Amino acid sequence: MTFFPPAWRLGVVQEVAPPGVLDLGPGYPGPDLQPVGLVRHAYARALEEFGSAALAYGDNAGALPLREALARRAHLPDAGRVVLTAGTSQALHLLGTTLAAPGRTVVTDRLGYDYGRAILTSCGLRLAHVPADADGMDPGALDDALAARDTAFVYLNPTFHNPTGQVVPERRRREILEVTTRRGVLVVEDDAYAELGLSAAAFPPPLAELDPDGVIRLGTFSKTIGPGLRLGWLTAGPAVVTRLLSHGLFHSGGSLNHLASLAVATMITDGEYDRHLDRVRDELRVRRDALLGALGDLDVTTPHGGFFLWLRFGPEQREEELVAAAAAGGVRVAAGSRFGAGQAPRIRLSYSLNRPAELASAGHAIHTAWARSGLLHERVSS
Ligand SMILES: Cc1ncc(COP(=O)(O)O)c(C=O)c1O
């Protein structure tokens, strides 16, 4: 049943499902979406082109070829606003330790990326949660939250949100930025899924495009190439860039992932990265539809990008029972409460890791398991 190569084993990778279990939990690309051949070639190219400079301490802000390529992709005038990171996780840690003293508050959505929140609380920061409606964070409630406390920054994930898949429309983006600008508070825009839009429709501009000095935008290659690269980037205004780069970590070690940066720069400049992205998006679309098709009449909105389906259940249903019944049917799912409490039961399913055939059988298996356990009642809408 498994299609994971033998090297995907504990001690090598962070997590592997036990044999026979279809894992719809993790949000990262599966083995067949990771372009091992392209990456091998890119590392060889980087070493040919840069030689020993690829093995030196890298420029503190990150290798210029990659920063320039990323600046062009983000329509920035130059690379001065781009800092390379060891992924979004490290960027959040950097922001949580550089822009905020322990005890200060980060304002965020009630629902959000669980491990991102854990990084911020590990930095000694408190989280304050603001309610959202179908368009995203409520600007009035955000204003109240910022008036009530000394906020280090606002942390948002407005495009293909993890876990809901929601995209905040442009109007709401502008309303949120009106509040943060008036209150003088920085926004951290986690845009991990930005390049994984799955429909032809135009998506709203990033918050950082609407307010380049007031928004720090985080990008990552984890979702498009593979998380093992540990490579990402942030864009920010010049004052924030200077402040971040004053961190001793850069003075001591230079850029956090120099050789990977040069390798990925070659993938972008020779067009391989964009061709790969097209393939990934095509495949994700097929995967999303295979899983959706197998879920029958369950209450779920089709996401227009990212990796996740967010299933809604009525208040009479119990999340633990849904998770347990799915496990008994051989499928691992993520409990919605992992991403924020105080809601009717929700389940997150990831379609990034498995192939369409596995996703279809996993979808049928959970639907059958839930129906047999009497867990499927009236469809709810919210
Ligand atoms: C919203 C969001 N941000 C960040 C990350 C982690 O990114 P990275 O691998 O670059 O640390 C994830 C991964 O699940 C995510 O969903």
UniProtKB/TrEMBL annotation:
Transmembrane residues, as ranges?
none
Q: Which domain of life is it from?
A: Bacteria
This one is known as: Enduracididine biosynthesis enzyme MppQ
Pfam families, alphabetized:
Aminotran_1_2
Chain ranges of the Aminotransferase class I/classII large domain: 46-356
What broad taxonomic lineage does this protein's source fall under? Answer: Bacteria, Bacillati, Actinomycetota, Actinomycetes, Pseudonocardiales
Q: What's one GO MF term for it? A: pyridoxal phosphate binding
Q: Which residues form the signal peptide?
A: none
